[in-house]
Design the sequence.
């Protein structure tokens, strides 16, 4: 008999009833150190007092009115994002998947309005993850994503990740856009080198193709800058954002230049819930905190501390780990064993991690995780690795 909740997840036998900072508490009172943060969503930890106060105040006033009317909270958050980034305009969604859908529509409408309706091909990369909608799985590919869900939406050319020669051959004056994650998340915490991101930007400029960056997982301060592409010294034409922007409240966004968004006029896109007063009030508070240069400097300091400890962990357990990947507080342990074994051993030490492709375990703690919790996390990961080695 099928479960009341559609069984599309292999869920761990853990039930959490409360959280505080980087910690979660189960129904029996056991505390777990959360290095997953809801897969990079709880950027400011659980039950953050600033976010609790903001959502409580707004909930007592107005939750939802729909986009038929002006929404001051939405306009303030959009302005904050425009002021802090390359973008000229923002559309708010409920998730990263919805942001991907709009990004694809925006690209194709752009070329339609330019008098090139057949210029629809978007170049993407194997191992990427842009969501689970029809457009997103067609963009990502991969048997697990697409098997049984055909026919796929056409108009995507998928290349091997990091194959710059193939990319240069594929992107021509008929290419609509290149879409990529500057740091691949689900695909195994792989970082595009700055030099290659610059090459990709130059290739798009030379051919007229739009550059779409998916910073759903690596954005909103996770790498020590507000968005990761800043570190490469480039800007996209369109960017998808979600996860950390709501601090745990469902919220996403598409940021774009005026040029890239020029085809999106009244009636071309919409969302019933996207950008409602409640979501944008919380997003505004997250933005206020995370965009602060002092906060981002602390993320960089904490990431250095954490990475140093992880490098020592790898050295101490050479039969379990191969190396450390990632940037900022978007880190991965490349494993010599099955990542599931490391994750499961972590449950035994009351520490939560997230598996990824390429034998990687993801570490995505809250951006404001205290130094003491970083030290505790390293100790628990050390004990978990010892347990894995002993069981081998």
Sequence:
């Amino acid at each position: 008999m099928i479960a009341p909740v559609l069984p599309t997840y292999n869920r761990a036998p853990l039930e959490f009833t409360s959280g505080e900072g980087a910690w979660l508490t189960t129904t029996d009172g056991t505390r777990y150190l959360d290095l997953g943060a809801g897969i990079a969503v709880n950027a400011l930890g659980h039950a953050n007092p600033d976010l609790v106060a903001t959502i409580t105040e707004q909930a007592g006033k107005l939750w939802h009115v729909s986009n038929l009317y002006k929404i001051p909270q939405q306009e303030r958050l959009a302005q904050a994002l425009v002021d802090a980034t390359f973008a000229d305009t923002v559309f708010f969604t409920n998730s990263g998947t919805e942001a991907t859908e709009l990004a694809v529509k925006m690209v194709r409408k752009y070329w339609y309005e330019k008098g090139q309706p057949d210029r629809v091909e978007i170049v993407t990369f194997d191992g990427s993850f842009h969501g689970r909608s029809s457009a997103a799985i067609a963009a990502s590919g991969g048997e697990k994503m697409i098997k049984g869900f055909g026919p796929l939406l056409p108009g995507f050319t998928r290349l091997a990740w990091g194959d710059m020669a193939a990319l240069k051959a594929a992107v021509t004056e008929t290419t609509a856009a290149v879409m990529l994650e500057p740091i691949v998340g689900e695909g195994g915490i792989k970082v595009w080198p700055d030099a290659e991101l610059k090459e990709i930007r130059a290739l798009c400029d030379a051919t007229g193709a739009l550059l779409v960056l998916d910073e759903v997982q690596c954005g909103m301060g996770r790498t020590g800058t507000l968005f990761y592409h800043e570190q490469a010294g480039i800007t996209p034409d369109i960017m998808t954002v979600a996860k950390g922007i709501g601090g745990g409240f469902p919220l996403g966004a598409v940021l774009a230049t005026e040029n890239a968004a020029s085809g999106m006029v009244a009636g071309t896109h919409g969302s019933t819930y996207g950008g409602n007063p409640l979501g944008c009030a919380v997003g505004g508070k997250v933005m206020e905190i995370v965009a602060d240069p002092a906060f981002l400097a602390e993320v960089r300091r904490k990431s250095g501390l954490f990475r140093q400890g992880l490098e020592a962990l790898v050295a101490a357990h050479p039969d379990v780990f191969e190396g450390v990947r990632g940037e900022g507080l978007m880190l991965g342990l490349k494993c010599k064993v099955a990542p599931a074994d490391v994750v499961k051993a972590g449950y035994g030490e009351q520490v939560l991690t997230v598996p990824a492709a390429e034998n990687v375990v993801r570490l995505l703690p809250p951006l404001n995780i205290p130094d003491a919790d970083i030290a505790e996390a390293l100790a628990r990961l050390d004990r978990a690795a010892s347990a894995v080695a002993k069981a081998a």
Observations:
- Residues 105 and 269 are 9 Å apart (CA to CA).
